Amino acid sequence: MALSGSVFGTVDVTPEEHAFITNELKENLKTLNNQLKSKQWFCGEDSATIADFLFAICLVDLQSCAMDTNLRNSLSNLNNHFKKLAAIPEIKG
To answer: Which of 38, 51, 53 is nearest to 88 (CA)?
Structure first.
């Protein structure tokens, strides 16, 4: 919330706070990316769960306002996960 608020100008943060928040985000995303190495879905089920869909919604916001191109490209498991979710017929509409 603080990161998106600082990006959109609704929350004042110092440059140090922004750097700290950004680094925490990167580390957490790397952890999630590594978790998906051995799983098809976040909860290890045979199909997507609400956790997968909620993360995809968050990922859209993160990609549009907080993640640089290098970070996005380095998270191949998350990118593949997002593509799998987007390919589900009920999601495609």
So the answer is: 53
pLDDT tens digits for 45-91?
788 889 888 888 888 888 877 788 888 889 999 999 988 988 988 77
Give the 3-state secondary structure percentages of the chain, helix then strand then coil, rounded to 5: 70, 0, 30
Contact 29, 63 (CB under 8 A): no
Burial 24-33 (b: 16+ CB within 10 A, else e): eebeebeeeb
Q: Closest Cα to residue 62, out of 35, 24, 15, 14?
A: 24
pTM of the model: 0.77
